[in-house]
Structures are given as structure tokens and as C-alpha cells.
């Protein structure tokens, strides 16, 4: 039987965590023994098949050197007992510690680059982790091309799957709402979105902005919305696990990131037929999903005026918006979990053949 261990700091919510939960559920359906090993917590907010094992070895992302070494030892102890497992790692720091912890063991390791490597730092961490990885999975060709040839030779491109909710594409009149889904962190550039919404709301005062997600910038962003005098129109929704049902009737979905891999929330919004607007950011994930003017709108990174103009177009041209949304829903076929998990399983099987 094939055996796989996913390594991730936690399963407390996030794009990579959702992908792991969905892949794990698909793997066990194919009779792949599957474990999720968490290094910074024991909470999981996603529904897992009962055959998926959850194991926690504490946290390696913080604490004293003594605590880090202990947790590293705990990881190595797990790896030694499960060295016949194929290790799949979804985060640079975790990949670094995994590479250290498995030193001298014959455990195969697949690292997965989840973001724009040029914008995310941690280059020494990546270099070490990828040197000790057997294969590296990238979400886009642009991300793969960023690295030197020796890394590219180990790499292949497998995009994120889209989780298609069991709800039909909404065909009724849409609400006067703008929705944004993502962690409240620097990468997502919500400051730009708030400024764009202020410009947009001057012409369309009936709209409200709904922010789904939590993060370290929440307090700062709330203060900015007050400074921009739009705080009465901005609703902070927090984390939500059934996001598709909540945003199904929204007027539009917006993504304002400075850099992004393939955004899970963008794929989900497209799959349920929402008109979408996204920044054309590195490393090409949004461009891979959106064909400008056909299934959504792309705007330059950091350009609040262009974002506001695109939002105005969606609000002013409901027929065009509806057409783009219906075309966007076809993305569900291209990025289905069955198709994407099949590519991962083929990679895992290739390892087994090599052995």
C-alpha cells in the first residue's frame, strides 16, 4: 500500500490547508494510507475522511531553541518510524525542518511551492529544502521558471484544485455586495482594496464590502476604513468555512493581492459563477485562471483607481457581468479535485515504481 504524510504547521484554516484536506480525502478513496502531520497545533477546521490520520508534534515556528530542537527530535522520531512514507510539504519553513529531520533516512520528500517565490523571501530556506527534495510541485509555470535549472529539473506544475460546492450557479438578481476572501496580511494588499472601494462607493453608495478572513492587519485595516469614511459600509466577516454559500449571491468578488499562487478563493468564486476581478500579479496564478474580459477582469497590481473602475464596470453592466460569471463557472471542470488529485497520485505512483 502506498503511504503518504502531509507536513503542515497547522490545519487551522487557509488555502494550503484546504488543499491538503481535499487531497487527503481523495487519496484515501484510492486506498493510499494518508496522514497529516502538524507542527504548530492540533486543530483542524476541515472535514476529513475518518481514514485520514491527524498527528501533531507541537510547534517548530516559535519558542526557544530548546523547544525547537525538541520538536525537531519529535519529527525525526516520527520520520524514523514511518520512513517508507512519501512526505509532502506545503510550506518553506516546514520543508526546511523536514529536510533537517530526515537527514540520513531514505524518506522521499515532495516540496510544494504555494506562492510567488520572488516576493516571499526565505530564499536560503528554500534553497536548502529544495536541494533535499526529490520532486518540487509548482502551481504555475512562472513560479517554476523563477528557479535555477537544477531546481526546475525536479519540478512539475500541478495547479490547485477547485472545491465545487453542491450549489447551482445563481441566476437571480445579485446583491449590492463586493466580497473579498483572504487572510488579512500584507500579501493581500487590502489597503489598496479599501481605497478602491472608497472611490467606487462614491458612484455606487448602495454597495457594501464584505471582508472574509482574519489576520495580523485586522486592527490596522479597520482604522483605515474609518479614516476613509467607509467603515459603515465595510463588514468584517472573519473566517468562514462555508464561504461559497455565503457569497453565492454577491455582486462581485475581488482579489487585490500583490503576489499570489493560484488563489483557492478565486477558483471557488469563479466555479459558482461570480463576476470576478483580480490583480494580474506574479507568479501568474490569476492570469492562468482569468481570460481578461471573457471570464473576469484583470487589473494592474497596486492600482486602486483601476480596481475601482473595474468594480464600476461590473456594477454598471449587469449583463456583461452575468456573462463573465457563467463563463467563469466552467473553470470547475479544468481544476476539479478529481483531475488534480489524479496528477498528484500519478506523481506518488512514479516514486513507488522507482523503488
Automatic annotation (TrEMBL):
<dbReference type="Pfam" id="PF00534">
    <property type="entry name" value="Glycos_transf_1"/>
</dbReference>
<dbReference type="InterPro" id="IPR001296">
    <property type="entry name" value="Glyco_trans_1"/>
</dbReference>
<feature type="domain" description="Glycosyl transferase family 1">
    <location>
        <begin position="173"/>
        <end position="330"/>
    </location>
</feature>
<protein>
    <submittedName>
        <fullName>Glycosyltransferase</fullName>
        <ecNumber>2.4.-.-</ecNumber>
    </submittedName>
</protein>
<feature type="domain" description="Glycosyltransferase subfamily 4-like N-terminal">
    <location>
        <begin position="14"/>
        <end position="163"/>
    </location>
</feature>
<dbReference type="InterPro" id="IPR028098">
    <property type="entry name" value="Glyco_trans_4-like_N"/>
</dbReference>
<dbReference type="GO" id="GO:0016757">
    <property type="term" value="F:glycosyltransferase activity"/>
</dbReference>
<keyword id="KW-0328">Glycosyltransferase</keyword>
<dbReference type="Pfam" id="PF13439">
    <property type="entry name" value="Glyco_transf_4"/>
</dbReference>
<keyword id="KW-0808">Transferase</keyword>
Amino acid at each position: 500500500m502506498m503511504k503518504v504524510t502531509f507536513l503542515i504547521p497547522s490545519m487551522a484554516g487557509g488555502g494550503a490547508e484546504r488543499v491538503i484536506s481535499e487531497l487527503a480525502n481523495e487519496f484515501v478513496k484510492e486506498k493510499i494510507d494518508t496522514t497529516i502531520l502538524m507542527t504548530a497545533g492540533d486543530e483542524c477546521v476541515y472535514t476529513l475522511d475518518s481514514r485520514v490520520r491527524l498527528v501533531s508534534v507541537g510547534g517548530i515556528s516559535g519558542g526557544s531553541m530548546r523547544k525547537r530542537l525538541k520538536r525537531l527530535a519529535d519529527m525525526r522520531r516520527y520520520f524514523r518510524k514511518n520512513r517508507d512514507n512519501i512526505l509532502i510539504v506545503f510550506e518553506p519553513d516546514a520543508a526546511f525542518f523536514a529536510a533537517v529531520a530526515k537527514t540520513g533516512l531514505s524518506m522521499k520528500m515532495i516540496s510544494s511551492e504555494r506562492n510567488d517565490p520572488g516576493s516571499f523571501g526565505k530564499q536560503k530556506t528554500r534553497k536548502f529544502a529544495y536541494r533535499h527534495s526529490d520532486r518540487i510541485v509548482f502551481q504555475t509555470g512562472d513560479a517554476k521558471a523563477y528557479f535555477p535549472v537544477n531546481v526546475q529539473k525536479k519540478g512539475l506544475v500541478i495547479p490547485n484544485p477547485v472545491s465545487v460546492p453542491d450549489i447551482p450557479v445563481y441566476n437571480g438578481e445579485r446583491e449590492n455586495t463586493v466580497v473579498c476572501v483572504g487572510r488579512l496580511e500584507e500579501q493581500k494588499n487590502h489597503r489598496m482594496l479599501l481605497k478602491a472601494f472608497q472611490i467606487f462607493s462614491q458612484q455606487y453608495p448602495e454597495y457594501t464590502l464584505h471582508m472574509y478572513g482574519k489576520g495580523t492587519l485586522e486592527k490596522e485595516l479597520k482604522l483605515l476604513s474609518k479614516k476613509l469614511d467607509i467603515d459603515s459600509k465595510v463588514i468584517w466577516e472573519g473566517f468562514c468555512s462555508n464561504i461559497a454559500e455565503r457569497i453565492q449571491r454577491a455582486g462581485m468578488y475581488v482579489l487585490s493581492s500583490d503576489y499570489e499562487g493560484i488563489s483557492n478563493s478565486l477558483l471557488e468564486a469563479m466555479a459558482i459563477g461570480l463576476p470576478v476581478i483580480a490583480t494580474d500579479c506574479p507568479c501568474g496564478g490569476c492570469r492562468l485562471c482569468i481570460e481578461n474580459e471573457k471570464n473576469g477582469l484583470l487589473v494592474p497590481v497596486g492600482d486602486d483607481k483601476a480596481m475601482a473602475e473595474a468594480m464600476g464596470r461590473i456594477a454598471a453592466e449587469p449583463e456583461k457581468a452575468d456573462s463573465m460569471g457563467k463563463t467563469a463557472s466552467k473553470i470547475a471542470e479544468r481544476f476539479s479535485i478529481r483531475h488534480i488529485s489524479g496528477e498528484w497520485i500519478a506523481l506518488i505512483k512514479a516514486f513507488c515504481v522507482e523503488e
